[in-house]
Specification:
Length: 81
């Protein structure tokens, strides 16, 4: 049985990203309840805080996968033995 690394690592990324977002959402809700947001610019920073690191982690994984594919041996062309 072969391991499907691509699917497995994608699911791990999803779990880590959801944990990150849920943790910050809980913190920001509690911060907002206590009157922490004073300016509109404070609220505009929230999407960057929530989505920036998961997107950066996904891009890092995709680029890493691309880089390791460069080490794969070249397949011979048709008719080559």
């Amino acid at each position: 049985m072969q391991i499907n690394w691509r699917r497995g690592l994608f699911r791990v990324w999803l779990l880590i990203s959801l944990a990150w977002i849920m943790g910050w959402v809980v913190y920001l809700v509690l911060f907002g309840i206590h009157g922490g947001f004073k300016n509109v610019s404070d609220i505009l920073e929230v999407p960057v805080l929530l989505l920036g690191p998961p997107i950066a982690l996904y891009l890092f994984g995709a680029i890493t996968r691309w880089a390791f594919k460069g080490f794969a041996p070249d397949e011979p062309g048709p008719g080559a033995e």
